[in-house]
């Protein structure tokens, strides 16, 4: 008998390439479908916003990014609420995975212009600016914002700002969709306006707002109070104008719709805070000077740190009997 070596048909050699081609073609169709759905979503959003009274315009809408991701590019987006505000940018990018459109990343490109009633027109840009919105099984949705190395200027008077970094997360609480939770961390904020400079080295906060659905009623403040709404500050720390301040507690509204509550407070170098309140107009210069003197003396006698609650009552905020701000009446 003669041994014969089995021969492999050539068509089996081509099979892996054929399978890969089929998979690639299917993925490309999936990518094209995702791009089409995102463009449809942009058109639907524009229609909805115009129906709500906004003015919305933009240039060409294109898609790219195959095969790794899906990017829709919108040229010259321009969104405005007549008489209130207007936002414009050179470009706006919408990014998503072609097989999962449940998380959308939004990032403007180039210079942006924002004008608002009472604040004038600001132009600015950021090395990193991304916002995302995603569906979440436990909380319904999650919004996130990341900003890095941002700067802007108001041409009318030369006011300017600079921000090193900011990270923000906002979402409903898992056990109560009407309660919104916020985590925020910011570093290196500097604002110059009206001949004054305001510096904040660091800000961190974790807070929650209950009964947030009441804020959409015709009388939001009164409705929120009637629903026993509360702003709960789990953690707040700021290093601002040489003052370090830590807060925790809850704020509600009194019958006259002024904020009320008591916040556990630790305060170091309070003169910086008094100076800030005087510069912003929250206190008169006389009140700011009195606050700085009183709290500085208190800090010296307390070993450099004041540990006393900030009391919000009858339209004013006080710490250890020293007034630190007038409070607004909400509507």
Task: Provide structural commentary.
This protein has helices at residues 10-51, 220-226, 271-280, 285-301; strands at 55-57, 61-64, 70-75, 78-81, 85-97, 100-116, 120-136, 140-154, 160-173, 176-193, 196-209, 231-240, 243-253, 259-268, 305-307, 310-313, 316-319, 322-326. The protein has 331 residues and is α+β, with helices and mostly antiparallel strands. The chain has a domain at 230-331. Strand 7 (120-136) and strand 8 (140-154) form a beta hairpin. The protein contains 4 helices and 18 strands. The longest helix is centred in the N-terminal third of the chain and has 42 residues, at 10-51. The protein has an 18-stranded antiparallel β-sheet that branches. Helices cover 23% and strands 52% of the residues. The N and C termini lie far apart (102 Å). It is globular, with a radius of gyration of 27 Å. The mean pLDDT is 87. Helix 3 packs antiparallel against helix 4. 13% of the residues are buried.
């Amino acid at each position: 008998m003669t041994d014969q070596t089995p021969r492999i048909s050539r068509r089996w050699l081509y099979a892996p390439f054929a399978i890969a081609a089929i998979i690639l073609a299917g993925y490309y169709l999936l990518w094209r479908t995702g791009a089409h759905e995102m463009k449809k979503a942009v058109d639907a959003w524009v229609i909805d916003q115009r129906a709500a009274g906004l003015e919305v315009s933009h240039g060409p809408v294109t898609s790219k990014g195959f095969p790794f991701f899906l990017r829709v590019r919108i040229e010259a987006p321009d969104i405005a609420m007549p008489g209130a505000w207007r936002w414009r940018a050179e470009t706006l990018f919408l990014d998503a995975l072609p097989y999962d459109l449940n998380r959308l990343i939004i990032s403007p490109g180039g210079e942006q212009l924002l004008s608002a009633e009472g604040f004038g027109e600001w132009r600015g840009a950021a090395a990193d600016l991304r916002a995302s919105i995603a569906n979440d099984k436990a909380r319904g949705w999650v919004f996130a914002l990341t900003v890095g190395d941002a700067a802007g200027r108001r041409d009318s008077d030369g006011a300017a700002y600079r921000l090193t970094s900011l990270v923000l997360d906002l979402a409903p609480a898992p056990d109560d969709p009407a309660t919104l939770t916020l985590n925020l961390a910011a570093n290196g904020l500097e604002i110059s306006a009206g001949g004054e400079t305001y510096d904040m080295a660091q800000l961190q906060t974790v807070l929650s707002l209950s009964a947030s659905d009441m804020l959409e009623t015709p009388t939001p403040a009164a409705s929120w109070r009637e629903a026993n709404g509360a702003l709960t500050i789990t953690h707040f720390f700021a290093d601002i104008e040489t003052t370090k301040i830590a807060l925790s507690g809850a704020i509600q509204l009194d019958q006259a719709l002024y904020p009320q509550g008591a916040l556990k407070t630790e305060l170091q170098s309070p003169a910086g805070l008094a100076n800030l309140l005087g510069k912003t107009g929250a206190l008169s210069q006389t009140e700011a000077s009195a606050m700085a003197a009183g709290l500085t003396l208190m800090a010296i006698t307390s070993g450099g740190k004041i540990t006393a609650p900030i009391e919000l009552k009858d339209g004013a905020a006080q710490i250890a009997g020293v007034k630190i701000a007038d409070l607004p009446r909400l509507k």
